[in-house]
Amino acid sequence: MSEEIHRFATDKAGLVVSKGLVFRGLVSKTEGNGTELFSYYLEIDFSAWPRLFPTVREVDNRIEHCLDNHVYPDSGNFCLSTRARQQFLIRSGKISTLEVFWNTVLIPYLVRQDLYANGYLDAFEKMEYSHGSLGYMESYHDLLGVGGLQLHRLLDCYVAGRNQMRGCTYGCRCVNFTRSAEGYRLLRRLDFIDLDILRFEVNVLVRFLL
To answer: How far is 159 from 163, CA to CA, in rounded Å?
Structure first.
């Protein structure tokens, strides 16, 4: 995996090694006639891949560090999606390579940042979800098709059942949800997500909903 990351980062993305699996370089987008639309000097840490998306931040501080810009204020890291959503997209094969991540996640994110910075957008358009706890709820609603307290109870039940290694019998709420083929298919999506991430995000939802 390390060789694959180095090959992509240097050969395809044009980055240079900073340290380990951390790379830096100018990331730009051009029109068909060669006119440059934008460029940002980025630092990209690939060490979490393929468990999670690479961690990306803009080095020159041209993008304000604030949640409304989907940039974490403390670290300056880009908020590209929730961790659970990242794992689902990677492990389900929807974003199976770094090249797909680059073209479908990172570059569109930078396009929106540039449009907002140049006054073409009144507010930064989110990639997928709101920031904060609401974004977690929106993410799981997309995965499971339910929201609110029903979502919290279903996730809580699923985590408890999976933690006890009870196979697919996650308790009464999960059993009721999976009586239909569609419900079973949707709940199986959670199997792509690591239990520690599910626990953390369930706790966030508890504080948001209760």
So the answer is: 6
